[in-house]
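Duplicate of #3305? Posting structure anyway:
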């Protein structure tokens, strides 16, 4: 005797209610009536034999088990979508929708360079872009909300597959008149031990990469006087004489850094990070992501003209 299984439509209803917290908004999102959506949730609960949504007159809440099922439902729908897109792209790779994530210290500096040639080479590819911190981008990728993402390594990518696209060495930014501003040599990382190093706030992987480059260990409960939310803020603080910072090489050609009143010096030893494209290891579209990764890698190669 075969076991009754939830339908894909019911899983879509569950995800919509969980994300919107409201049956009416979830129904609009799914292009069905509220009664149809409510009936679908009830059928899902009957099929599973458990309660996934708690309903009162004032609120809608997903049960703890329901939250776990939402995570699995996203993965199921992502796999089904992968199957559909893979079938359509079997003769024409990199067509249709691709949801690409990027972290804030890569996206604004890499995407403007690579998107125009990507669009020219694959005009039928429709990109949905989302920028967020690394941990959230990876969670969204694992959960099926994103298809691939641009992140910086080293980072624990767990069950994700990655392709390194480019090395991204760090540069030291110091204010005008700083003792290191006059040197012509690359700066040794241990010289920074005595420097007031300005960093991004906790949660940005660039913060951890910068500390590792300087061979510093994060001190619990001590985050520094300033915690910036962007590279732009860091550069402005350095220009104002509040300290020094490390900038990724990929950002140096941006207008706001070129115009900033700071002096840039390379770090000795080529210390830095790596820019990588990551995707789910078991994705049915992994061959497409490898193709995308190779295309991006070619665009970011040192010999490629800007």
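Output from current build:
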């Amino acid at each position: 005797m075969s076991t009754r299984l939830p339908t894909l439509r019911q899983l879509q209803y569950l995800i919509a209610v969980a994300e919107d917290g409201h049956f009416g908004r979830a129904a609009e999102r799914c292009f069905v009536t509220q009664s149809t959506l409510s009936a679908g949730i009830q059928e899902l609960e009957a099929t599973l034999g458990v309660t996934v949504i708690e309903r009162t007159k004032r609120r809608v809440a997903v049960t703890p088990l329901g939250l776990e099922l939402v995570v699995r439902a996203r993965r199921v729908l992502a796999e089904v979508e992968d199957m559909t897109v893979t079938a359509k792209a079997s003769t024409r790779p990199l067509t249709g929708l691709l949801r690409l994530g990027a972290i804030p210290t890569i996206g604004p500096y890499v995407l403007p360079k690579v998107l125009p040639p990507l669009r020219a080479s694959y005009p039928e590819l429709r990109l949905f872009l989302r920028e967020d911190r690394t941990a959230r981008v990876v969670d969204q990728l694992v959960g099926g909300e994103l298809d691939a993402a641009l992140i910086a390594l080293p980072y624990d990518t767990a069950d994700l597959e990655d392709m390194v696209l480019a090395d991204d060495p760090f540069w030291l930014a110091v204010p005008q008149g700083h003792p290191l501003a006059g040197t012509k040599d690359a700066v040794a990382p241990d010289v920074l031990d005595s420097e007031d190093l300005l960093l991004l706030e906790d949660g940005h992987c660039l913060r951890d990469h910068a500390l590792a480059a300087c061979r510093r260990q994060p001190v619990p409960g001590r985050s520094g006087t300033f915690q910036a939310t962007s590279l732009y803020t860091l550069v402005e603080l350095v220009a104002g004489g509040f300290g020094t910072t490390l900038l990724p090489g990929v950002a140096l050609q941006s207008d706001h850094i070129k115009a900033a009143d700071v002096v840039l010096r390379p770090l000795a030893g080529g210390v830095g990070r790596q820019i990588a494209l990551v995707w789910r290891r078991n994705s049915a579209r992994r061959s497409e992501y490898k193709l995308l990764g190779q295309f991006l890698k070619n665009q970011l190669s040192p010999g490629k003209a800007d």
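Confirmed duplicate; merging threads. The longest strand covers residues 160-175. DSSP finds ten helices and eleven strands in the chain.
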